[in-house]
User: Fold this.
Amino acid sequence: MARFDREAKAMAALSHPGILAIFDFGEYDGTAYTASELIAGETLRDIIHRGPMAIGSRVELAVQVTRALNAAHAVGIVHGISSPRT
Assistant:
């Protein structure tokens, strides 16, 4: 829970158009939660599953992701995938 709290605080302090805004976080009845903005539209998964993208679209997507990651890294947030706990 302490790690969840640290990460949620860090994300809530971040403001960038390419990063989902976190409005609230906490624990309710033993379950951790985050309340975030709702973004309408296609997910990256939807776009990828639709098929090959034109080179210009791929470049634009890469630029958007890079800018968002740069903003996160600038405030000390590093995105990673953790291993499942056993």
